[in-house]
Amino acid sequence: MSGAGFRKTKRSLPIALLRAREEVMVPIRSMLAQSGVTEQKWRVLRVLEEIGEVEPTIIASEACLHLPSLSRILKSMEADGLIQRKEDLEDRRKTLVGISKAGRAILTKHAGQSAAIFAELEARMGKEKLETILDLLEELLD
Q1: Residue 19: enclosing H or E segment and its boundaries?
Q2: pTM given for the model
Q3: Mean pLDDT, residues 8-35 taken together
Q4: Burial 10-47 (b: 16+ CB within 10 A, else e)
Q5: Reduced to 3 states, what is the DSSP secondary structure of residue 1?
Q6: In this predicted structure, what is the pLDDT of residue 3?
Q7: Which one, of 65, 63, 58, lies nearest residue 95 by Cα?
Q8: 98 pairs with which residues across the strands?
Q9: Is residue 2 in a domain?
Q10: Is residue 19 domain-resident?
Q11: Which residue in 51, 77, 116, 127 has the most C-beta neighbors within 10 A?
């Protein structure tokens, strides 16, 4: 195939986003390996810390996870004591998920290292460029 109609892979948005993600995730994966927490569990913990107790559908959306995958992840996290589930008092058909003390402890343990990773990225890119990238990605998602 001649490649007619295709952009060069270096200028393909999907491929560029994947490459950028992988570059950003290298130090984060290294950090998480110290606690045995997967990227997906880390995202769930971050979402729960930020927005509090919520339904799994909201966690799935905010943590960029498919609901069936999240269900398995939540079972594992509950078994590890990282989250707690409870019945919604207003609508007993719903389950709310919240972060536990053990889950918060993992976030606290890695807060400094996470901030240092972001600071290194900011130093490498420049604060203004990094904010522009984040703004453009938000605009793309709107």
Answers
A1: helix 13-33
A2: 0.88
A3: 93
A4: eeeeeeeeeeeeeeeeebbeebbeeeebeebbbbbbeb
A5: coil
A6: 61
A7: 58
A8: 84
A9: no
A10: yes
A11: 77
Residue 5 lies in a domain: no
Q: Nearest CA to 49 among 96, 112, 100, 95?
A: 100
Is residue 128 assigned to a domain? Answer: yes
Cα 134 from Cα 108, distance rounded (Å): 24
The pLDDT of 74-101, averaged and rounded, is 91
d(CA 117, CA 123): 10
Which helix (H) or strand (E) segment is 39 a member of?
Answer: helix 39-51
Burial of 77 (0-12, 13-18, 19+ CB in 10 A): buried
CA distance 45 to 48: 5
Question: CATH number for the domain including 92?
Answer: 1.10.10.10
Average pLDDT of every residue of the chain = 93
Q: Provide the number of structural domains found in the chain.
A: 1
Query: How far is 104 from 50, CA to CA, in rounded Å?
Result: 11
Domain span including residue 63: 12-141
N-term to C-term CA, the chain: 35
- CA 134, CA 142: separation in Å to the nearest integer? 12
Pick from 112, 34, 41: which is nearest to 83 by CA?
Answer: 41
